[in-house]
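Q: What structure does this chain adopt?
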Amino acid sequence: SLRGAEIARGRVDPSRLLVMDPRGGELAVDGIPTTDPVFGVPAAWISVADRERAESLGYTVVDAASVVATHLAETIRRHAGEILGRAETNRLLDLVRSEAPGIVEEVVPNILSVGEVERVLAGLLREQVPIRDLVTILAAAADAARSTKEPALLVEAARHALARVISQRHRAADGAIHAVAVAPATDARLAEAVVVGPGRI
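A:
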């Protein structure tokens, strides 16, 4: 639960193993049918004695503890933007301050408050953009904040600064980035329809 509201639920059987087909197909093993809590593919809880057969069929076999750990990590990743608060933001700023004190002293609180930094980081996390490079994020947000304090535009500035990291995460095995292009007229209409309001686009 997060702040009293349930965000994930699952059930594990410590005496069994979770098996799933990485291709997402139907399983040809006896077990208790279920759905993998992370990837949402068909799965089954099988006995330990059936492990060898399942592996010979090319299935992924995971013990209960690993299922819990993976599900918890994925749940945190999906809700990281909601989990991040003032205290966590202050701790992150303290980490940056220990390595690059100049950027923190320049930005907080002279240009951006801790709350505004929090909103930028939360916005990136909601989009599942890594926030490891806090120096780049702070610098980009601070530059943009000289002309606007609109959170959505500050997030946009940070996203642009992290373009290389974001693009690398979406590269295919051959290094290509697949994209869909829209007609120029449609693109123009979409741009005209975007309205920037307090705290949102």
